[in-house]
What does this fold into?
Amino acid sequence: MLSYRHGFHAGNPADVFKHAVVIALVRALQEKPRGIQFVDTHAGPALYDLGSAMAQKNREHEAGIARWWSTATSDPMMAPYLELVRGFNPDGELRHYPGSPMIFKSLLRSNDRLVLCELHPAEQQALLSRFAGDRQVSIRCGSGYAEMPRVLPPPGGRGLVLIDPPWELKSEREDLTMALESALKRYAHGVYALWYPLIEGRELALERIPQRLGLDGEAWLDLRVEFAPAQRLGRMYGCGMALVNCPYRVRQALVDWHAAFTGLPPAET
Ligand SMILES: C[S@@+](CC[C@H](N)C(=O)[O-])C[C@H]1O[C@@H](n2cnc3c(N)ncnc32)[C@H](O)[C@@H]1O
It folds into this structure.
């Protein structure tokens, strides 16, 4: 039974962090001209209307993208992220929020391609209609864990996989570890970005993953952030992105940037 809908959470502080990291990774990989395959194992419906009933229920974007909306920043991670989100709101009013499929899509070059996996029927439908006829995008209606190894290695040898589960099921860590293990067997030098929440009273024990998969401190980079108190979402006090094979071009910049991230623009922290 799939109950999670990202429409209730779009644009929250966790999305801000995750999407800024994704953009930095894409841009670092695109410094080389050869085409890249991006895989989004848990895609969601791609574009969110922040005025919709779903988004308005808890108004999580108010603690996230809305706090940054009017900020002029030269921050190397936040400036490209804000520019991309602003591109979806050309009249200057924050209304539309791009999810990861739309973020990838916006950044595709003519020789890149995008694979989107999604399990929820309503979100599958949204993806199928949004990307109908788009030859750079393929949609796989099934579990991202089963699909990920099937689309690896990427045809041209270069790829980034975003793994962004809802973390609803008790089996999530085990499912993910097994899928990552099988993906790494097929594509050992791929870049993988795994998002996870930090929730009071719930220990995900993700540090077991690199141990089990034999990934050392070079291959496994865990970027964990805690939100400022006003940015917390119920019991969720922060989140993280664990990166496998982070491109060296952006590694140090991400390490430095995440250490200062609170979910708020610097003047407000
Ligand atoms: C956190 S949301 C994704 C948000 C999106 N990646 C973004 O950043 O905009 C998780 C999505 O995964 C979907 N989902 C849940 N289990 C899945 C599975 N095993 N395989 C693929 N999609 C799944 C849910 O329906 C939901 O749309």
